[in-house]
């Protein structure tokens, strides 16, 4: 199979400084043609600046932007085969919704636009609103017009800067799936900026997690969730319990660690910290991977599981599962999400418990990082 990479977006050493402030440290990134790529991070981490450098709206302080073989670093935005959907709607106020969406087609001299525009409006659930003016629509509806307008010309790359931010949660979810479906159908590269980890995980094939102007980690949503490499990623994507542990020894492809009075096992492949004997490692495990057993039944727990002891501090019943907070000497406020199948009635605040999990679900982080 040959791979057509003529539409890959390639950033090489691209960086941006404002005076003495570095918004984006020089970074290298390749977004494969046809992928749905998310730049994810908290406000101010540099994701919008990165997107704007791809669009040509921000001049990089260093580095180059390539689209396939073409160096587009010095091209003005309108000469790049990209289109952007902004946080602000930027619709033409004097044109109705139909004409706003039709605009790009008409500018290219296409006469029969009706079917394409109607299909696009149906896609964003605005078929009934075609003859209204932008000011007669809600903010969320206006944002959907902006998405339709940007897509109508089938750009090679669609850049989306928090495009769903104005929508209510239900519509936002619908639009996430809609955008994903559209992207799959048209095969255009989507580069999506968001601070919402769930949104990035739902939509993107690949996510770049940004922090303080740097890409902390790049990977598929499941890889980032299962194998975070830094405490920032571990905590930004979902909840992680982190236990301070000390490397004791190695046994085959497993690292044995001391935590409190006990031992924990960590697959070496899932440890991003240097694991030298006596070194410190932060051992992580996700709340939903943990089982909770009353201390009186601790003898029933299979030998090969990681385990720590604690006392239930709090529990909240949330339907399908119960969320427990467990205080333990090695990790205060350990979070556990347990499915409510055969729930043990003794598991109430104050109960002594053993938390245990399959070592395969453990990850190791560098305790020395900030
Ligand atoms: P948000 O989600 O809030 O839009 P972001 O991650 O997209 O945040 P950027 O907009 O890329 O962040 O900004 C990165 C940093 O660069 C921020 O600290 C911001 O204040 C700063 N910055 C952005 N534009 C300028 C500018 N024109 N002059 C000075 N500093 C700027």
UniProtKB/TrEMBL annotation:
Ranges of residues in domain ABC transporter: 9-237
Q: What SUPFAM superfamilies does UniProt report for this protein, alphabetically?
A: MOP-like, P-loop containing nucleoside triphosphate hydrolases
Q: Which UniProt keywords apply?
A: ATP-binding, Cell membrane, Membrane, Nucleotide-binding, Translocase, Transport
| Catalytic activity annotation | ATP + H2O + polyamine-[polyamine-binding protein]Side 1 = ADP + phosphate + polyamineSide 2 + [polyamine-binding protein]Side 1
Role played: Part of the ABC transporter complex PotABCD involved in spermidine/putrescine import. Responsible for energy coupling to the transport system.
Entry-linked NCBIfam families: potA (TIGR01187)
Q: How does it assemble?
A: The complex is composed of two ATP-binding proteins (PotA), two transmembrane proteins (PotB and PotC) and a solute-binding protein (PotD).
| Listed name of the protein | Spermidine/putrescine import ATP-binding protein PotA
Task: Tell me the organism.
Answer: Streptomyces lannensis
This chain is encoded by the gene named potA
């Amino acid at each position: 199979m040959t791979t057509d990479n003529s539409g890959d977006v390639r950033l090489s050493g691209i960086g941006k400084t404002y005076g003495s402030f570095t918004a984006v440290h020089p970074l290298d990134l390749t977004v494969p043609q046809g992928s749905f790529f998310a730049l994810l991070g908290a406000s101010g981490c540099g994701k919008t600046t990165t997107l704007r450098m791809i669009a040509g709206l921000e001049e990089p302080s260093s580095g180059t932007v390539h689209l396939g073989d073409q160096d587009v670093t010095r091209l003005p935005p309108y000469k790049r085969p990209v289109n952007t959907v902004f946080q602000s709607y930027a619709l033409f106020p004097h044109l109705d919704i139909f004409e706003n969406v039709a605009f790009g087609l008409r500018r290219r001299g296409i006469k029969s636009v009706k079917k394409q525009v109607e299909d696009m409006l149906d896609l964003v659930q605005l078929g009934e609103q075609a003859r209204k003016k932008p000011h007669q629509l809600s903010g969320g509806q206006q944002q959907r017009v902006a998405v339709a307008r940007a897509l109508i010309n089938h750009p090679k790359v669609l850049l989306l800067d928090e495009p769903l931010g104005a929508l209510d949660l239900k519509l936002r979810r619908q639009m996430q799936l809609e955008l994903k479906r559209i992207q799959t159908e048209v095969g255009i590269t989507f580069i999506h900026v968001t601070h919402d980890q769930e949104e990035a995980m739902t939509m993107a094939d690949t996510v770049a997690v940004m922090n303080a102007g740097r890409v902390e980690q790049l990977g598929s949503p499941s890889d980032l969730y299962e194998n975070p490499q830094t405490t920032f990623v571990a905590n930004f994507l979902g909840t992680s319990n982190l236990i301070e542990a000390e490397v004791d020894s190695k046994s085959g492809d497993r690292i044995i660690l001391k935590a409190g009075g006990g031992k924990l096992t960590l697959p070496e492949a899932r440890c991003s910290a240097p694991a030298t004997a006596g070194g410190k490692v932060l051992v992580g495990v996700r709340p939903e991977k943990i089982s909770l057993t009353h201390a009186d039944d601790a003898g029933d727990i299979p030998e090969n599981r990681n385990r720590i002891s604690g006392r239930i501090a709090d529990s909240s019943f949330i339907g399908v599962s119960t969320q427990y907070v467990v205080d333990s000497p090695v990790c205060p406020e350990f979070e556990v999400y347990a499915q409510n199948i055969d729930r043990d009635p003794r598991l109430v605040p104050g109960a002594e418990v053993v938390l245990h999990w399959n070592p395969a679900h453990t990850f190791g982080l560098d305790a020395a990082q900030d």
